[in-house]
């Protein structure tokens, strides 16, 4: 049986014709994991703490997905006018689930918001809006289709990320207006964009990796040597081996 991997989803407060709470997640997160012979299990803000613990206890990996902005109250800041939608319920659920995953020492992969949430969970801070708080030459919120790669980044030599990808050079997509400001203690920078913005972080000595781009958005059509496929392959290998 393929290993179970917990995958976070959000909760839309008023969805559908009845305007009731609805669990939501782009399906390609699941299809990508399934393509690597992993079985995704959703964990959501609708789950109780008891259910969350029970589900995580059966999982061998954990994926923090993209989505809303992280509430700046989580890192001690007041919101700026440019802050996007936040979900305190999702923040609380993901932080609790991450704590369980770290306790169980299972591999953790954070994607986009998930990368930011990792940094906040470990005690770091975020730019609430890059355009106003850290303007630069690289456009981090692209208007091109989500499968398009629009700017370059470089994995730092000696990091887990660089060893997984086999090359320092990356061409990535970019769909975020927030970014990592102060890196948390216990984490280190694993990749940076050409303008110096942090594009990946990791926890030394553990399989805890966060990437700011969306590797799941064009992995399916990429060759086996593509860095996004190599990232998921490395995650799958760690999950199967029980290495964290």
Structural class, from secondary structure content?
alpha/beta
Overall residue-averaged pLDDT value: 93
Order of helices and strands: EEEHEHEHEHEHEHEEEEEH
Count the DSSP helices: 7
**CATH architecture call:** 3-Layer(aba) Sandwich
Gyration radius, in Å: 17 Å
How are the strands of the largest sheet arranged? 4-1-5-6-13-12-11-8-9
Q: Can you identify the CATH superfamily?
A: Class I glutamine amidotransferase (GATase) domain
CATH fold label: Rossmann fold
- Strand portion, in percent? 15-25%
Q: What is the CATH class?
A: Alpha Beta
Helix amount: 25-40%
Supply the number of structural domains: 1
* Straight-line N-to-C gap: 20 Å
Care to count the β-strands? 13
**What characterizes the major β-sheet?**
9 strands, mixed
Q: Work out the oligomeric state of the chains in this entry.
A: single chain
Describe this structure in words.
With 244 residues, the chain is of the alpha/beta class. The protein has a single domain, classed as Rossmann fold, CATH 3.40.50.880. 28% of the residues lie in helices and 23% in strands. It is built from seven helices and 13 strands. It has helices spanning 28-35, 49-57, 88-104, 113-121, 130-133, 160-165, 227-241; strands spanning 4-8, 10-15, 20-24, 39-43, 61-64, 108-111, 126-127, 151-155, 169-172, 179-180, 188-193, 198-202, 208-211. The strands form three sheets. The chain has a nine-stranded mixed beta sheet with strand order 4-1-5-6-13-12-11-8-9, with helices on both faces. Helix 2 (49-57) runs parallel beside helix 3. The longest helix has 17 residues, at 88-104. The mean pLDDT is 93.
């Amino acid at each position: 049986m393929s290993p179970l991997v917990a995958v976070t989803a959000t909760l839309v407060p008023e969805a559908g014709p009845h305007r009731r709470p609805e669990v939501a997640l782009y399906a390609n997160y699941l299809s990508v994991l399934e393509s690597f012979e992993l079985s995704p299990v959703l964990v959501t803000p609708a789950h109780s703490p008891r259910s969350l613990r029970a589900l995580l206890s059966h999982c061998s990996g954990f994926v923090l997905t993209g989505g809303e902005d992280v509430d700046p109250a989580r890192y001690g800041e007041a919101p700026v006018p440019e802050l996007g939608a936040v979900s305190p319920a999702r923040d609380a659920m993901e932080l609790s689930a991450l704590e369980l995953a770290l306790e169980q020492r299972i591999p953790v992969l954070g994607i986009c918001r998930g990368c930011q949430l990792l940094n906040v969970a470990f005690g770091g801070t975020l730019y609430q809006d890059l355009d106003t708080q850290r303007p630069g030459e690289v456009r981090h919120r692209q208007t091109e289709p989500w499968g398009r790669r629009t700017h370059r980044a470089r994995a730092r030599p000696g990091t887990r990320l660089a060893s997984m990808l086999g090359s320092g050079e990356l061409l990535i997509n970019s769909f975020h207006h927030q970014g990592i400001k102060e890196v948390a203690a216990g984490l280190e920078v694993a990749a940076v964009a050409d303008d110096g913005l942090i594009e990946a972080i990791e926890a030394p000595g553990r399989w805890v990796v966060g990437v700011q781009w969306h590797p799941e958005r064009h992995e399916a059509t990429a060759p086996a040597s593509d860095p996004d496929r190599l990232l998921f392959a490395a995650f799958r290998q760690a999950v199967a081996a029980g290495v964290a």
